[in-house]
Amino acid sequence: MDEKQKMPIFKRWWFWLIVIVFVIAIASQGNKDNDKESVGGFKQADSSLTEQTEKVTEESPETTVADEEEEATNETETLSQKNAVRKAKEYLRAMAFSKDGLIEQLEFEGFSEEDATYAVNKINADWKKQAVKKAEEYLNVMAFSKNGLIGQLEFDGFSNEEANHAVNNLNVNWKEQAVRKGKEYLNIMAFSRNGLIEQLKFDGFTLEEATYAADQIGL
């Protein structure tokens, strides 16, 4: 029997199977290398971000200069000064005060003029806002003319600028205030029409406002 003729190796099926497996293995290895490079790139970016964050943290001071100054001031405060500051804050939570009015109130409480002045300067209040608040407090109790309210605020220690700021920042109908004031007077005593108009003018209402009040009341 003749021997079978041998086939060339490239025509054998198992040869091509080995070639295909080898090609797939090379392609798979290339993808892994690319993934490693990609992951490495992300790690490098994360590392850079971490370094920047640490740098910002190092450059940012934990406390500001103002905080340090306040802390130093608090350390040098006497006990009497601390109590004066505390009392001043308590008063402002309860009602409005002018700067001078609050100093006088603290002195009335027994604090020295020095400690009272120190406390009022320390709390750093907005005195114009205090003037507005005080004006509103007064109008909740009784009626005022515009000029009468300015005069009352100045009597309480507010400056003319602060008092005018307060009155000009109120949403008030001064004619209605005149009517209200006229009724307040009539609840206490009797007035003639002219007498009530004159009294209202004395309180700072204009002739127009006072006349409007008398008309609305029915005199």
Q: What this model shows, in words?
A:
The chain has helices at residues 13-59, 65-76, 79-94, 99-108, 113-123, 127-139, 146-155, 160-168, 174-186, 193-202, 207-217. It is mainly α. The chain has a domain at 78-125. α6 crosses α8 (160-168), α7 packs across α8 (160-168) and α10 crosses α11. The chain is flat, with a radius of gyration of 43 Å. Residues 1-7, 9-13, 35-50, 55-63 and 65-69 have low confidence and may be disordered.
What proportion strand? Answer: under 5%
- Rg over C-alpha atoms, rounded to the nearest angstrom: 43 Å
Query: How do the SSEs run, as a string of H and E?
Result: HHHHHHHHHHH
Whole-Å distance between the termini?
A: 150 Å
> Approximately how much helix is present in the residues?
over 70%
- Helix and strand content put the structural class at mainly alpha
Shape: flat
Rounded mean pLDDT score: 80
Number of helices: 11
Q: What are the segments in which pLDDT stays under 50 over at least 5 consecutive residues?
A: 1-7, 9-13, 35-50, 55-63, 65-69
Taking the sheet with the most strands, its summary is: none
Number of strands: 0
